[in-house]
Input
Amino acid sequence: MPSFPIVDTHVHFWDNEQVPIPWTTNVPPLNRPFGPDDVTLHADPVEIEAIVFVEADVAPGANIDEAAWVGRLAEQDPRIKAIVAHAPLENGARAATDLEALSDMPLVRGIRRLIQHEPDPEFCLQPDFVAAVKLLPRFDLHFEICIFHPQFESAVALVRQCPDVQFVLDHIGKPGIKDGLMEPWATHMAALAECDNVICKLSGVATEADHQNWTEETLRPYMDHALACFGSARVMFGGNWPVATLAIDYQRWVGLVDDALANASEAERRQVFRDTGIAAYRLG
Output
């Protein structure tokens, strides 16, 4: 375990009474409120110094309310230092209304419009979507890529079309771990790493495996490849809490990342667990 406080760059909070989040009704273990006190309890004895909240796929039209609610949570818990909010980028230029409203909130650093559930593998290459992504630098925002591995080729193409946009890849691109698939995910990861405007989030790995039967040996080839492609300066730790609890507890995930960094220097370990996240989200 790290001997220093960590920065968790991927945490969700939700409460249906505050902001509607319909999908949790179909996932009983997650169908309750989750807040800052819960992550403190679940992470113990790991000390979390800073938290980046990532949008939690709320009901359509509730994205501004979600970001505002998390901003109020941050007033009570100063560990919440940044927000990645949802915006309807498929609306093209019309998405600027949401982007402007969100950029006025002091903690909003980036935008995530979930791609993973879109049936069209080229959804993110639609002209309106690309045009909206290209708007993000105007608002000092980055784009957070959340895909399943069959959408990876399109995600690489999106990044190549937007060289002035900063990107973060969530959950190492969600490889097909449950089915034992390395390719073409591994090739796509290497191609994405060639784009110097991308940072990789080491998060959400266990949830892509068989939730009940994975082992460290199941996950390590994917973790090792992500680290080899991007290097410690472009990889940051994410807990993907509480979604990750479907497959792994917080302490075990931190331990697995620490094990993957066993041969790294102390500076490289701090880079992954702290410094990359601090820089990427401008935590100061």
Summary: Strands lie at 6-11, 48-54, 80-85, 108-111, 142-145, 167-169, 198-202, 235-237.
